[in-house]
Design brief:
The chain has a single domain, classed as Winged helix-like DNA-binding domain superfamily/Winged helix DNA-binding domain (Arc Repressor Mutant, subunit A, Orthogonal Bundle). Helices cover 58% and strands 6% of the residues. The chain contains seven helices and two strands, in the order ααααββααα. A two-stranded antiparallel sheet has the order 1-2.
């Protein structure tokens, strides 16, 4: 009797692929949770809040839209996170001197101080890993994830920064 080796089209092969995909997703979600918990223990901030602070430490943002682009998320999501950071006096909002209609976002002294002992964020690692993938692999991953999200019926769900709660309106809760 020979051993049956799963082929791509076989039920066993499909089960192996599904389990492998689920294991990979579980590892990513687990990593996001672990890094988020570490961020909260160390800094008192969510992983998303710490990620936004780290982005602002690299350079002040000339607008919410610029910060949204730098965090690879929607403006409304980053706006809610920034509001919480402003309330904690870790980020300041000020009018741009050259254009009073624009708001400049930057770290306060307290924000800089908090970052001194802050851990790396899962978002930062994930972005770096995605950017390091060959373009064809990244494109294939994007297409596959978009198809999965659509098949799950989640393509109309609000998109927030990782593990930030949503109230269903697309804006994260405070």
């Amino acid at each position: 009797m020979g051993t049956h080796t799963p082929t791509r089209g076989s039920r066993a092969g499909r089960n192996t692929q599904v389990r492998s995909a689920l294991d990979a997703l579980r590892r990513i979600v687990q990593g996001l949770r672990l890094y988020g918990a570490q961020a909260e223990r160390t800094t008192g901030l969510s992983g998303a809040q710490l990620f936004v602070l780290q982005q602002l430490a690299e350079a002040p943002a000339q607008s919410l839209n610029e910060l949204a682009a730098r965090t690879h998320t929607h403006q409304s999501s980053v706006s809610a996170v920034v509001s919480r950071l402003v309330a904690r006096r870790l980020v300041s909002r000020r009018r741009a001197s050259e254009d009073g209609r624009r708001i400049v976002l930057e770290l306060t002294a307290a924000g800089h101080s908090l970052l001194a002992g802050a851990p790396e964020t899962a978002q930062g690692r994930l972005i770096a890993a995605l950017e390091a993938l060959p373009e064809a692999d990244r494109r294939s991953l994007v297409d596959s994830l978009a198809a999965l999200v659509s098949a799950l019926g989640m393509d109309r769900e609000p998109v927030t920064l990782f593990l930030e709660p949503s109230d269903g309106s697309g804006a994260p809760r405070s």
